[in-house]
User: Which sequence fits this backbone?
């Protein structure tokens, strides 16, 4: 792959393009074990209502569906299947990018940092998705095509609450939605959907949720049992300023 200034980057054997500068730190990137657990949990279909809400939020029109912090590309692939067209899955984790490269034939997978300029030309995206992932608003505004939308999924305080309380998991910042709204000052909210469902989870599913989340970075997972909790995510859709 070669850019207009002549910089060349190899496409990895596993099918993703790595645009991180040499020596970049993994930082907040998901580890191989986290990505593996996420892939297995999402394959259960427990988060399907969230995927459907994301697909419903993508506007018709030209341009790619860009998923920032796409993880395994699970949601991105299903959104593309529903809305058509092409997509770009961007993630800081090469383990995630390897999965995303295989997630859908019309999905390109790129390793890049969401806090750096996005590797996309101005006005080329019909939607920028960010699902439990970094929310780089200025760059989203730049890459959105006319009529394009930023689609943000943020967990509410009720998301997986019984597990958070019962297992002492890392909690959702209760001001996450508030901080999102401050970051998107000047944007227009065009839709706000609360995706909320009870979740009756098996012990294996509980273990996968623990292993795919940030708590797994700090402590080895203790044995878990089945649990009843909730999927509770706010999907908001935004039009850029101007
Ligand atoms: C909680 S996971 C969500 C993954 C996916 N959106 C989903 O819902 O299945 C957060 C993802 O953001 C990625 N990530 C963390 N920091 C990032 C950054 N600075 N730039 C790009 N991706 C990042 C992680 O590697 C991880 O895959």
Assistant:
């Amino acid at each position: 792959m070669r850019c207009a200034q002549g910089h060349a980057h190899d496409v990895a054997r596993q099918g993703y393009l790595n645009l991180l500068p040499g020596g970049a730190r993994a930082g907040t990137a998901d580890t191989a074990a986290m990505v593996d657990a996420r892939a297995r949990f999402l394959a259960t279909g427990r988060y399907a209502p969230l995927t459907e809400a994301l697909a419903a939020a993508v506007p018709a029109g030209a341009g790619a569906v860009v998923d920032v912090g796409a993880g395994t590309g699970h949601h991105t692939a299903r959104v593309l299947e529903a809305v058509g067209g092409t997509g770009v899955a961007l993630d800081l984790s090469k383990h995630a990018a390897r999965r995303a490269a295989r997630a859908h034939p019309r999905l390109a997978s790129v390793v890049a940092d969401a806090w750096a300029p996005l590797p996309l030309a101005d006005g080329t995206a019909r939607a920028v998705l960010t699902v439990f992932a970094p929310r780089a608003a200025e760059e989203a505004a730049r890459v959105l095509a006319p009529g394009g939308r930023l689609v943000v999924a943020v967990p509410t305080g009720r998301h997986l609450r019984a597990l958070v309380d019962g297992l002492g998991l890392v909690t959702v910042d209760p001001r996450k939605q508030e901080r999102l709204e401050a970051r998107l000052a000047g944007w227009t909210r065009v839709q706000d959907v609360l995706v909320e469902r009870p979740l009756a989870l098996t012990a294996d599913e509980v273990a996968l949720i623990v292993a795919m989340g940030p708590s797994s970075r700090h402590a080895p997972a203790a044995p878990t049992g089945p649990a009843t909790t909730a999927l509770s995510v706010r999907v908001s859709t935004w039009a850029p300023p101007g």
In short: The CA atoms of residues 137 and 184 lie 7 Å apart. Residues 32-42 form the longest helix (11 residues).
